[in-house]
Design a protein that fits this description.
It comes from Streptomyces kaempferi. The chain is mostly helical. It has a domain of 112 residues: Four Helix Bundle (Hemerythrin (Met), subunit A) (Up-down Bundle), CATH 1.20.120. It has six helices and no strands.
């Protein structure tokens, strides 16, 4: 009667050994696959930086779009176009925070190089006086004036040659930043209008905010390095003019 439990114990031990032998390599392989997955996820993706810049541009648009449209909806749907001061301040602050966040993520605009100073032109030697002949003296003075004029002309030409040429050097980030500044001013005017007690000020102020928002979106779309649209039927987008 004692042999049977012993056999069972031996059988159980054998099964456990077999299971460990099978599961051990599988567990090790799973751990190795997991480690490889983590290593692959951490590896950089070629060309990802350019796409991430485009994604950030779109995030800036959406981050500003929502609070501005919230303010516009509240102002245009309010009774008489007027909002409580606390509500107007809260909506305006949300826009201000969104604009500040979008501005902080814009690329830095390179500073305009300064024009180097031109070397001073040496003074012309004094012309000796001629004998007292009125006609010859006036001709000599006229020649000196012409020489001085030639020198001044050459100096002006040198300055023009050394002046930097503006060939569309303003970055798209600068255009977007300008649009955000203008949008903030329009939003401030709208907040003032919806608490002024004068309903006639609301629509013009709201229109200015819509225009400012469109300017910002267009500056990002045309100058933010986004891919060209390829939906059939869309007209070609114009390029930003060089300033």
């Amino acid at each position: 009667m004692r042999a049977l439990p012993a056999r069972r114990i031996a059988s159980s031990a054998l099964c456990a050994t077999l299971l460990l032998g099978i599961a051990g390599p599988a567990a090790a392989a799973a751990g190795s696959d997991s480690a490889r997955g983590r290593t692959h996820a951490a590896a950089p993706v070629p060309g990802a930086d350019a796409v991430l810049t485009q994604v950030q541009s779109l995030a800036n648009v959406s981050g500003v779009l929502a609070p501005v449209t919230d303010l516009l909806n509240a102002a245009l749907k309010a009774d008489g176009g007027q909002l409580p001061a606390a509500d107007a301040t809260k909506l305006g602050q949300a826009v201000k925070d969104a604009i500040a966040k979008a501005t902080a993520t814009l690329p830095a605009v390179p500073a305009t190089p300064s024009v180097p100073a031109l070397p001073s032109t040496p003074a012309l030697p004094a012309t000796p006086a001629l004998p007292a002949v009125p006609s010859l003296k006036s001709a000599d003075e006229q020649g000196s004036a012409e020489e001085r004029g030639d020198v001044e002309g050459r100096r002006a030409e040198q300055q023009d040659d050394k002046a930097p040429r503006a060939k569309g050097s303003r970055a798209a980030a600068n255009l977007a930043a300008d649009a955000l500044v203008a949008l903030q001013k329009a939003v401030d005017a709208l907040v003032k209008a919806v608490t002024s007690g004068d309903a006639t000020q609301v629509v013009p102020a709201a229109t200015a905010v819509v225009t400012g928002l469109v300017n910002f979106v267009v500056a990002v779309v045309l100058g933010g390095g986004l891919p060209a649209p390829n939906l059939p039927g869309l007209p070609a987008l114009p390029s930003l003019p060089a300033t």
